[in-house]
Amino acid sequence: MFASRLSRRTVLAGTVAAAAIAALPPLEGRAQAADDVTAPTYRWRNAVIGGTGFITGVLFHPSVRGLAYARTDIGGAYRWDDRAARWIPLIDHLGWDDWNLLGVEAMAVDPAHPDRLYLALGTYAQSWAGNGAVLRSDDRGATWARADLGVKLGANEDGRGMGERLLVDPRDRDTLWLGTRHDGLLKSRDRGATWAAASGFPGVPSASGQGVTLLVAAGRTLYAGWGDGDGSSTNLFRTADGERWEAVPGQPTGVSAKVPVRAAYDGHARELYVSYADAPGPNGQSDGSVHKLGTATGTWTDVTPVVPGGSDAFGYGGVAVDARRAGTVVVSTNNRWADVDTLFRTTDGGRSWTSLKDAAVFDVSETPYLDWGDDKPKFGWWIQAVAVDPYDSRHVVYGTGATLYGTRDLTHWAPWIRGLEEASVVQLVSPPVGEAHLLSGSRDIGVMYHERLTASPARGMATNPVFGSATGLAQAAGRPAYVVRTGWGDHGNGAYSNDGGRTWAPFAAQPSIAHDAPGPIAASADGGVLLWSFVHWDGTKYPAHRSDDNGTTWTEISSFPKGATPVADPADPTLFYAYDTDTGKVLASTDSGRTFTERVSGLPSGDSQFKLVAAPGRSGDLWLSAKENGLYRSTDGGATFSKVDSCRASYTLGFGKAADGADFPAIYQVGSTEAVTAVYRSDDGAKSWVRINDDRHQWGWIGETIVGDPRVYGRVYLATNGRGIQYGEPV
């Protein structure tokens, strides 16, 4: 994605002192176990935005017209349904405990068996992340068999646009190869059911390197790229029999050929094309090249379209051959900011190249956010995934850090993205009135106003100013036309709206720390007071500030806990609350946020992911999601809290329209009543819960935020970390 993402699901179970728990009487009634209640049937769909993330790989099936697959860094894999003309998500069944498997490191198909598909999964290779896994399917991803690995993969780390690192051996369709970052080359002889280190492979793994960067078959010979060299050592190996590996003779060396990024084989001309860069990317590349190897002659030829240099620094990324025409190849630049990235195309084996950017005409009307706030859509950045349709030479596609573009005539380009949603969502607001039922805030694409749930927001990203990533989004409960937002931006970090989020204006001023550490924000019930908290991306916390003149002036609040999320009382504009996750204390302000005093202590502490929310329309009705410690409630503005014994764990919680005849809003929760972490609804004030998602709809880590629709009973909006905004409705 545009910004490097750390895990959003590092679980640190806080501890509540026994004396504190004893002092908190339980609420009346116990919940029924989820399986004791007749669960409603829900239909789950994406609120459409379109793309919004890094497409790291695209693969047309060589034997089936119209069949293609795409992989993403944090949002799973997709199959193109040519009849429905949309992408179908393939691994939404992976749940809470498998959050690390939503990143797809590599994928592979079997040309001789069109229904077979393989995915190598694992988002992070860090010590705090779990090991990777390989999924194998005999029905194009409709169902899966799984093999857990003893090694880690890194689909959202540097080098995630390289590959593919997974390959079906053309000499034996039951044999698969998997390149890893830190554990060398793995081999499976039973179609991915079991894996072991490949004997004879000469690469020596490094704890900090890239390991195997690509695997490709050229006829019956396999080639493997190696990313741990220094530019003067071997970085491309081959084997003719699957047992003995050797360095490819005569291969290019030097900084511009330090890391082999991608490779593609032109079977007509018997030439292997390899793109290189001086770093794995997608960031940090400043040099690169493209070379081809005549596999029959052993001759290498430098066919670099444009040599990087001076202010025009970049690497090369994707490379794809035209299966129908010998010598026709497309390559991409990557990390080219001065002259902007492009695709180069040759029809004569690399003797001459044409930049497709120069004549490109873009139509982003289906996904207006790609305007990026102006009327000249960029060709894109982070271009490492490139593919040419083997059944249509003029159907070329390429992935970027935000979308997947496609063309049918090499000139007119449009997002080829319908059904593919990869936003990492952090903020959701469902207004009680107005045109839009949903406002959202995400990493990488800022804030959006959703006029419709079935089409990408017509206004695109909120502008004036544009935020790369949102950190705060709040609506005045008693004045819903007034909305504020905060986030990472180059031209201001806070803005307000007086029309429900349709249009925006920047705050007239902002605290100096706002540029480097924008955090969450709250608006009083009448919109007269703003509280803005500040947290740097590295976790450093700073004093919050207050404004009572719509952001014209700001005053530091020394008594507010640093880094806490401010919570406005929805009924009384003089009341604000804060939960100090470091100490397990709830503080409150009765003077419109000027000063805060402690209300209660002894609550769970030690994790910034604890969440305090206020029930709508009620003063002082506070709910605390404390992860594995469960759910707590206060009905006296935080003076006392009672543990809700109806759920074992609570990660995030929100409210929606009450059921007919109910005297309390519907409550929606990501948590667990027994063993299963899932999405639940309660219509009786948390006395009982029903699960409303199912095993096919789990989406990995979903603990950021959830909110019900205050106007539509049963409708709920759920933020995911890589599968966009999911919304569910009873059917």
From TrEMBL:
Database matches in InterPro entries: TAT_signal, WD40/YVTN_repeat-like_dom_sf, Xyloglucanase_GH74
Keyword hit for Signal: yes
Coiled coil, from the record: none
Keyword NADP attached: no
SUPFAM superfamilies hit by this protein: Oligoxyloglucan reducing end-specific cellobiohydrolase
Keywords annotated in UniProt: Carbohydrate metabolism, Glycosidase, Hydrolase, Polysaccharide degradation, Signal
Family: Belongs to the glycosyl hydrolase 74 family.
Name the UniProt record assigns to this protein: 1,4-beta-glucanase
Organism: Streptomyces cylindrosporus
